[in-house]
Amino acid sequence: MKVWGLNSANSQLKKSWFSSPREGFSRLMQVMQDQEWSESIPMLSWAIEHPREGIILVDAGEHPRALEQKNYPALNRMLNRNMVRFPEPFQPALDQQLKAKGIHASDVSHIIITHLHQDHVGYLSLFPKARVLVSRAEFEATEKPFAHMKGYWPSLFPESFKPDLVDFKDGTFHNFESSKMLFDDLWVVPTPGHSPGHQSVIVKSQGRYLVLAGDVTPSMKYFELDTVDMVSAVGGPQQARQSKQKMVQFTKEQHALYLPSHCSTSLPRLEAFYQQKTLA
């Protein structure tokens, strides 16, 4: 089984979005007032070549329509303009990136979504034949009042969006109290905090665990720091810290390769892993 990365776009966020001791409304105000922008960060999805299930995607990237302000309520338009910018054109659509590797959209059998924020669901509509897998808690969060205040935009979902809901009923997986084995050598574990039903994907490739972490941490830089990103700081800082602690423990104990979705080192470290270099 092999994994490779797909980058849909590069963006910049306010520096205090990534790390600060502040939480709740205070953190939001800090980010709003921050004048410093981060380095460019990727918006990664993952393609898994599974020996039995074929091509499985993890997340579906950011679509350019996410920049169309008509998709958001007025308050969120202001927040978006203040907190994020795209310094360069978007990358080719995910189906075109796959096509460059000889894979057609119809070859994608499943799409596992770590969470339903817009930068992880953008190209879902390109894969109508794929089964979409989302944690039950995550999908239910999108149906609650004021879901848009937690980063959910149903207007960006495909029409008649009805994913298969994941319940973590397969018992413990190493230090995770609950898990779900979806396929041979592929598990999902609950990692709430950044969103209520956030899940991370763990695959075994060439005898080693690879963690497709989603947004458990923004990048490797913050992996072992006692801090959380702004979304987690506003929505669920304690859960986010607990999820991070479990992931740090798992990664160290299992010598896993940890790959967050917005880390500029994720792709080179994954490439180094398959080339058996020490960078991983």
Automatic annotation (TrEMBL):
Listed cofactors: Zn(2+)
SUPFAM superfamilies referenced in this protein's UniProt entry, alphabetically: Metallo-hydrolase/oxidoreductase
InterPro entries per record: MBL_superfamily_lactonases, Metallo-B-lactamas, RibonucZ/Hydroxyglut_hydro
Gene3D superfamilies for the chain: Ribonuclease Z/Hydroxyacylglutathione hydrolase-like
Pfam families, sorted: Lactamase_B (PF00753)
Entry GO MF terms: hydrolase activity; metal ion binding
Name the record gives this protein: N-acyl homoserine lactonase family protein
UniProt organism field: Deinococcus cellulosilyticus (strain DSM 18568 / NBRC 106333 / KACC 11606 / 5516J-15)
